[in-house]
Amino acid sequence: MSANEPRLDFKDPGLEPVWDKVRSGRRLDAADGLALISTRDVPTLGRMADWVAGRRHGRDAFFVTNRQCNPTNVCVLDCKFCEFARRKGQDGAWEMDREEVLAHGEGVREVHIVGGLHPDWRFDRYLGIVRDFRDRYPDLGIKAWTAVEIEWFARLERRGVREILSDLRAAGLDALPGGGAEVFSERVRRELFFPKIGWDKWSEVHRTAHELGIKTNATLLYGHIETYEERVDHMLKLRALEDEAPGFMAFIPLAFTPGNTGIPVNRQGAVEDVRTIATARLILDNFPHIKAYWVLLSPDLAGLALNFGASDLDGTIGREKIMHMAGNASPEGLAKEAMRRLIRESGKNPVERDIFYRPVAEPVAA
Ligand code: SF4
User: Fold this and answer.
1) 308 C-alpha vs ligand 1 centroid, how far in Å?
2) What is the pLDDT of residues 260-318, one digit of tens each?
3) Which site in 95, 111, 320, 331 is 20 to 30 Å from 294, CA atoms measured?
4) Does residue 363 fall inside a structural domain?
5) For atom 2 of ligand 1, which residue has the closest CA?
6) Centroid of ligand 1 to alpha carbon of 36 (angstroms)
7) Cβ(147) to ligand 1 under 6 A?
8) What is the pTM of this model?
């Protein structure tokens, strides 16, 4: 046993062989993942994941000064779980003008841009948003358009994904967000978001982005009709993709919020959340970070998750529409000091970062 290795008191014998693999640096398989995600010995699972996170990042936990920008919620698709999208002209539909969009870059270090697949917007408009941000804020980290949107642009333009991403890269794009992944199970896709792309297309977009030097994230939408096996399989697919074409920065489990969708929630609250985060930290041995997204989890639970393998809280998030429309009650934005306090209270060392997880010292120019 190495000096800083925790002495674990296993209440679940199923965790012991998994721990042996983890501490000796062997890869976990689907059966190991299942043992982790279904264990009732959550404290021990948390200590395992915390130890692994600590080997990568010491006691550091990261956050960024950022803002979400959703230029439109008008979308041609109709995913069952989506509370965000509206039809053109429908009550609650919005389309921001150029200045409204660009205001989201003021005073922050990173902007996260996603929206609907608007029936009238051409690729040029989406490309122009990236170019405008880059022109007005040369140092801003620009994370924009999910794989669903990239694939939509390619279809609109009758061009390849590689060409679309190359244009966006040239316009100033730094990274792709992880959304649109949902759950890579075909069964779940057919039932909940049939019109959306599945694993084949999603992985093609992210593989191509990595090959072009564009970093990306990956999400998992959990706590609805998916099984534990499907959650673990989702993580294993991502691990294999990172082996093949490295470029992921963070994995972000997103707890499902039902809103008015009528889809049943299948999740045992906080226990389920930290168990999913810890399992991800242990399976995804080639992902730098697991993110505890405080907007969905609540600040308190996200702070707790920093002791279950998470190493990033996302950011201060000035404007956030998608999750709030689904009825989430988290505050609109956490100030920087509040982020630092939250991290310290969780026993970790707060590190303000940029889009690529480089620590930053200087305040953002207003
Ligand atoms: S999840 Fe995305 S693609 Fe599906 S309806 Fe909502 S905005 Fe459109």
Assistant:
1) 31
2) 788 888 877 899 999 999 999 999 999 999 999 998 899 999 999 999 999 999 988 86
3) 95
4) no
5) 116
6) 31
7) no
8) 0.93
In this structure, is residue 221 part of a structural domain?
A: yes
Report whether residue 82 contacts ligand 1, using a CB cutoff of 6 Å: yes
The total of structural domains in the chain comes to 1
3-state secondary structure the chain: CCCCCCCCCCCCCCHHHHHHHHHCCCCCCHHHHHHHHCCCCHHHHHHHHHHHHHHHHCCEEEEECEEEECCECECCCCCCCCCCCECCCCCCCCECCHHHHHHHHCCCCEEEECCCCCCCCCHHHHHHHHHHHHHHCCCCEEEECCHHHHHHHHHHHCCCHHHHHHHHHHHCCCEECCCCCCCCCHHHHHHHCCCCCCHHHHHHHHHHHHHCCCEEEEEEEECCCCCHHHHHHHHHHHHHHHHHCCCEEEEEEEECCCCCCCCCCCCCHHHHHHHHHHHHHHHCCCCCEEECCHHHHCHHHHHHHCCCCCCEEEECCCCCCHHHHCCCCCCCCCCHHHHHHHHHHCCCEEEEECCCCCECCCCCCC
- Is ligand 1 within 6 A of the CB of residue 84? yes
The whole domain housing 118 covers: 61-352
User: How many angstroms does the Cα of residue 319 sit away from the middle of ligand 1?
Assistant: 19
Give pLDDT tens digits for 169-201.
999 999 999 998 899 999 999 998 888 899 999
**What CATH number did the domain enclosing 232 receive?**
3.20.20.70
Give the distance (Å) from ligand 1 centre to CA of residue 221: 13
Kindly state if the Cβ of 192 falls inside 6 Å of ligand 1: no
Is the separation of the CB atoms in 238 and 247 below 8 Å? no
